[in-house]
Amino acid sequence: MKMKPLQVPKRTIMTPGPVEVDPRVLQAMSTPILGQFDPCFTDIMNEVMEMLRELFQTKNHWAFPIDGSSRSGIEALLCSVIEPGDKVLIPIFGRFGHLLVEICERYGADVYTMECPWGEVFDQQKIIAKVKEVKPKIVAIVHGETSTGCMQPLNELGPACRELDVLLIVDVVASIGGANVMVDEWCLDGVIGGTQKCLSVPSGMAPITYNDRIEKIILSRKKVEAGIATAEDIALGNKKNRIHSNYFDLAMLQDYWSPRRLNHHTEATSMLYALREGLRLVLEEGLYERFGRHQYHEKALIAGLKAMGLEIFGDEHHKLPTVTCVKIPLGIDGDWVRQMMLEQFGVEIASSFGPLHGKIWRIGTMGYSCRKENILSVLSALEACLIRAGATIHRGEGLQAALDYYEAPIAAKENANV
Amino acid sequence: MKMKPLQVPKRTIMTPGPVEVDPRVLQAMSTPILGQFDPCFTDIMNEVMEMLRELFQTKNHWAFPIDGSSRSGIEALLCSVIEPGDKVLIPIFGRFGHLLVEICERYGADVYTMECPWGEVFDQQKIIAKVKEVKPKIVAIVHGETSTGCMQPLNELGPACRELDVLLIVDVVASIGGANVMVDEWCLDGVIGGTQKCLSVPSGMAPITYNDRIEKIILSRKKVEAGIATAEDIALGNKKNRIHSNYFDLAMLQDYWSPRRLNHHTEATSMLYALREGLRLVLEEGLYERFGRHQYHEKALIAGLKAMGLEIFGDEHHKLPTVTCVKIPLGIDGDWVRQMMLEQFGVEIASSFGPLHGKIWRIGTMGYSCRKENILSVLSALEACLIRAGATIHRGEGLQAALDYYEAPIAAKENANV
């Protein structure tokens, strides 16, 4: 078989991930690799840990990526902490809450859920009341629910869980690097981020962080694998409550990410280069400047969509600034519009899952994709394709509203930093 | 914190992985990404499947990568097939046999092992006799044991297992793309490869393949996750014997790698580009030409090492052509020598694990690293550092023997293809 060289079309990717990768990250990935125990490589591992701590706004020692997509990080944290029969409370406000349930159930947890309609978030006090009632070992929750474009406040829930001695594990995949995530300030015990969204690094790594409350559980379940265990490791014994997965065993991963450098997997070299460069870009821009940029362009997008006559889906007071959900006008085939946008304009937006499929589109403003020209491209393509599909919209108004926003004096100042 | 730009020293990587990445693969990774459901991207997914079938020499439909390091592929296959209490027979001849035990035990298998000394392989008839005695559901075994440099023949074991209706699952991480692996011919039911060795692609993906015997088990355990399941999926029910891991659930991964494209994880775009280019390089070179090249340079390396006065470790009749194990001369500190080779010459070789640590070095001849100049560099650096360490060796003989080999008429012809 003769396979042609790789050639990809130019795309404007405005989905909630994966989004366009920063050119500096793409370039970093073409750097020749190093051996996994080469001191120059272990230095890079340490640098990534250091930058991840800044990203997560934490003093936690443990902050490193799991080699796999975002859900690999979720599974690694949950399976390392959950022992069969453990009570886990999961407030669900979208698809990724269900994913947390799914994973916890597979690892034998006794799962309690509470749900609110997709498009809303929970009053934190209601969750706290449920925590007091259920008395779980763990609360697992999503921060930015990419399926609905909503962001759950956690600033009261975290301290309450800490006081009640309940662990709080949070999926910040869709918010990290694009919206504020204060791991220590909010008392989050274990946190999972993603690379392919606001960090503008390709999918394939899941940065996580966790504190000593979680580490204590992990260490109590530790067993070094046969074939590399020392006599001392073996003396520590064959724990009955050992972690179920080998690949996701944080007790062993810790040893690999510590000076002991005990071999576990072979670290994904080029992806680590990519993450390192992505983190450098975040810290160079400044965390809060970056959050500001995400909100800034999100507002331009919303102004454009509304001016076009479209309606934003979900509770606007708890909107995830990195994902904007738009109601598909009645009678319009959402997938047809998306397909035309991609084929004719090279602009990609997303549909949603389950009950929201066909009801809303999701437009991301994430990382490197979160730029003025991309906002203008998506508004332009969406308008043209909507007209083509026969929708009644305010022609020409979307781009004018976005341009008005960008040209307004107060905005112009902020825009200088972009 | 101000982090400096990524800068890595030039290395000659002669470990058994990760090895030097082919420059064409590095370049492919700097290609802008595509959305995961972009038809141009799903075409690439299909192309990778097609090329993997050729690599594995199989007609299996299922051949795709797991997003994670090699052991993620091992865990995905084993955990999707093993149900608690299943008997698994694991013949162990090195560290990675122990890893198979480790993973199977964690998933509740009733594990039976047989061991032979590290440095040897099993007489296949002995394994077959044990299969008849134990009557396991699965035999799991390593093909190329990178910890000892030995390669286990499987051509009799496979057909025997098929006849006894036992599944044979094989770790070919260290051999695939460098030594012959005939999945269909040898009747291997499930096979896990690696990228960072003979494919010269960075670590971060584990290509696997499996046949309908395995698929049948996987489908019997299938459950589509809540949040994306259709009514039909839900009607299929909540299987009691469902697969333990979500991330490694091959039933769901199959749906993602099929025309249904049911969302599971977000495929690691840049790594898939890398794998695609790595596979193109393998198929352009030709599978058997590539195996020939690996053996060709392995012989040069062995000639050089022996001429230097060093001894090869392990059964030479069952040597893995991609890894050469060398006994560390008595009284020499193996790690000191390796460190000096790296620091002074930028040449990296490996130690080994467990009982062999400090006893042998392991030198890889894998993929893009398997080139004449690398063989000559490793021999040169090793000799100089051994002399520096006070070892008594035949000075100057190693390189002369390798050059003799390369310059010999019969070799010259083969070398033209390299």
Automatic annotation (TrEMBL), chains A, B:
Alphabetized UniProt keyword annotations: Aminotransferase, Pyridoxal phosphate, Transferase
Membership in a protein family: Belongs to the class-V pyridoxal-phosphate-dependent aminotransferase family.
PTM-bearing positions, type N6-(pyridoxal phosphate)lysine: 197
Binding-site list for substrate: 362
Keyword Transferase: yes
Species for this entry: Ureibacillus thermophilus
GO BP, one annotated term: glycine biosynthetic process, by transamination of glyoxylate
Pfam families (UniProt xref): Aminotran_5 (PF00266)
GO MF: alanine-glyoxylate transaminase activity; L-serine-pyruvate transaminase activity
Highest taxon of the lineage: Bacteria
Occurrences of domain Aminotransferase class V (ranges): 41-351
Cofactor: pyridoxal 5'-phosphate
Nucleus in keyword set: no
Name assigned to this protein: Alanine--glyoxylate aminotransferase family protein
